[in-house]
Amino acid sequence: MNSKKLYVTKISLIVALGGFLMGFDASVISGVVKFVEIDFDLSKFQLGWVVSCLTLTSTLAMMMSGPISDRYGRRMVLKVAALLYGISAVGSALAPGYAALVTARMIGGFGVGASLITAPMYIAEISPPKIRGTMVSFNQLNIVLGISVAFFTNYLILQLGSSESEWVSTLGIGEHNWRWMLGLETLPALLYFIFLFIVPESPRWLAMKDRKTEALATLKKVSSIEQAEKDFDAIEENLNKTGTKRKTPVRDLFKPGIRLVLVIGIVVAITQQITGINAVFFYAPMIFEQTGIGTNASFSQAILVGLTNLVFTIVAMWLIDRLGRKMLLIIGLSGIVITMSMLSVGFGKASYRLTDEDVSELREDIPSPGWYKVQEITYNSDLAFKKAISSTLGEDVLRKNESTLITRAININPWLILFGIIGFVASFAISIGPVMWVLFSELFPNVIRALAISFVGFINSGVSFLVQLVFPWELANIGSSFTFLIYGLFGALGLIFIIVALPETKGKSLEELEISLATNKP
Fold this sequence. Notes:
- The protein is 78% helix and 1% strand.
- The chain is mainly alpha-helical.
- The protein starts with a helix and ends in a 5-residue tail after the last helix.
């Protein structure tokens, strides 16, 4: 690896640490929900709000971070995001109640939105075209690495909590396990803030601000002198032609010349989230508990989800500048449709039955005169079983003992469910997970890139918020089978659109793409 490419890689990895924090911050909640629901006596809607509130504020931040980064610079926005991550981690760990926890997570959401938009945009603007896809994918790689680390640290803290070591007791890891899960993020947030001081500002942003000498100097760090001067001339020509030194109004997004790329961006943004990826990531232990494997096993299988996500994201980074963006999306979305259908069938064929022996053992911890109404009765859906438990033993008994009851009662093929979830995550990670952000950084013209990415990111995050918010309600009211079927149908619609409408963008400079796409030419 030559020195120029090494420099670009180093800078891209530092900036992409924002993705790590985003992945950790968003996914660590998967290990928290089971405990905070009981500690704070939350309803299913409140539980969904604890998970999704971070995405709500990140949605708002996405809409603002593009224009703010145009005004103050990409690097400044990332520094503020790092600080917000740290504040959120401390506040969440120390939250005395539901409202404080939601507030702290909402603060972190602003950091998530800012880094999720700004980091890939910065990397795209500093990277040479031949390696841009791989460099931008570093952000997605760090997101999935953060998700994997969150799953692992959640499991580690859960295991430490059952230890009898004195230091574990002194630190309160067992008693306050979910607080430690949330508080660990403080360290990487601090490191990210420090590392950003050695990152240069985006050369395209510097050129927009008439800081030509600095822009050219940065370009020379990532390319040869001849190529840097050529790239700088192209940037200047583009800026002069489009008049980008003025503030970009929102109405520019809807001009006829860029209508096609805006529609593509919106559809891709919706498809990425409406297929249910964050329901799987943020509620992984809860989903696995529905198969009856128990709490500890559900946490360990969540680690497998994170590792699968990590491995196939690396595969996507290797393939994205070889096969291209469109082919990876077609492959991945096809896999999503197949695996979601598999999950729907798997949960649809499950049955639930508490034997006399089960009830005899459960009665010791859950005394109730209503057990006779549910024992030795077979229920053909999770909805019917939960409804019967709730009506006979009480909603509070179901909420506090759902995992134990399902573990006892369920008759399901857990390997089919595990394979379906792992296959779904692999399909997502090799395609629309990393490819979406690469496309966003490539599709839109320089003049509106920051605003356009904020706009489609806003839509992407808004859909993610809704998916996370309603997922506990879906499990409780329409069941696992129908929930996953809905995700698969949305995946099929997205696949059809990608095949018909998406052009290939690999190997072209941002200025070349602007000429071909923003003018609707083939």
